[in-house]
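Deliverable D2.4 — example input (structure tokens):
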């Protein structure tokens, strides 16, 4: 009998049409549900590929200790994949990361180190680098690791091309490490140069988990601006509102970065007369239940009104 392991189920996630938030003849908005990966997010793809390729190149071996800075989803994915591939994982993240994420990482067997909230992700990245040199740990460095973006060149891009039967006209993705958008851009542009790649960033007044506008010194080395055709900025309010709409109207329970991506994708869809717009739903909403994303008073009042 041929059996499979949990890592065999990374990828091949559903691509579903948004039927409620967009009703426009000639234009389709499709959402790729990355929360269906085993670890619950798009980061499973990069986590597996980064560790697997490092082992393949003999940069690391079974029993070695890895260290990585993360804001959450990558950490969960790395904790899962490290244990499956036989290496140890230390994760460094800001102390304001949600309780669900921290507990999930520890449940998979990773050691978690929390850094001061005021230092943000930059502080977590600095400490991970310090541990690499002081302790001799292997640092995957997702921000500069091309195996991050290659994971999406090998899997996410081909899946989108296949499932849209080559009809995709626009691809929209939140930008954090930028691995997803870089890898998908490479693949889709090879198939059709006319596909428009749209990156999503927070506006200057907003903080959106999973979407970043990095200071110059921390810009990921894997990010190449020439691979993006346009950038859409979203506010925290817009991202939250769309996240709630996705749950209520489309039955898609996701995090705030997904709401931001879909808000931008809807803007794109409303500007064109014909096309197929694909947006990435990065993860699942159950990762944010201890935050205020689904708990604000106004939102709860709206939910009650809908039930009536």
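Example output (designed residues):
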């Amino acid at each position: 009998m041929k059996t499979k392991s949990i890592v065999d189920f990374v990828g091949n996630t559903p691509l579903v049409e948004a039927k409620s938030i967009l009703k426009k003849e000639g234009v389709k908005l499709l959402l790729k549900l990355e929360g269906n990966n085993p670890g619950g997010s798009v980061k499973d793809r990069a986590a597996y590929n980064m560790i697997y390729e490092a082992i393949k190149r003999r940069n690391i071996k079974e029993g070695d200790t890895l260290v990585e800075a993360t804001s959450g989803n990558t950490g969960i994915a790395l904790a899962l994949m490290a244990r499956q591939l036989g290496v140890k994982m230390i994760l460094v993240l800001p102390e304001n990361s949600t309780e669900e994420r921290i507990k999930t990482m520890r449940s998979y067997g990773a050691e978690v180190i929390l850094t001061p909230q005021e230092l943000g992700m930059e502080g977590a990245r600095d400490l991970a680098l310090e541990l690499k040199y002081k302790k001799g740990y292997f640092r995957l460095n997702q921000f500069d690791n091309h195996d991050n973006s290659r994971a999406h060149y090998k899997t996410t891009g081909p899946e989108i091309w296949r499932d849209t039967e080559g009809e995709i006209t626009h691809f929209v993705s939140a930008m954090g490490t930028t691995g997803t958008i870089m890898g998908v851009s490479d693949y889709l542009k090879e198939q059709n140069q006319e596909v428009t790649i749209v990156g999503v960033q927070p506006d200057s007044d907003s903080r959106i988990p999973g979407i970043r506008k990095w200071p110059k010194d921390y810009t990921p080395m894997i990010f190449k601006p020439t691979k993006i055709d346009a950038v859409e900025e979203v506010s925290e309010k817009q991202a939250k509102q769309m996240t709630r709409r996705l749950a209520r109207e489309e039955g898609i329970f996701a995090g705030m970065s997904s709401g931001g991506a879909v808000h931008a994708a809807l803007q794109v869809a409303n500007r064109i007369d014909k096309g197929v717009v694909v947006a990435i739903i990065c993860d699942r909403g159950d990762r944010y239940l201890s935050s205020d994303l689904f708990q604000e008073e106004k939102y709860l009042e709206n939910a009650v009104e809908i039930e009536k």
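The chain has a mean pLDDT of 92.
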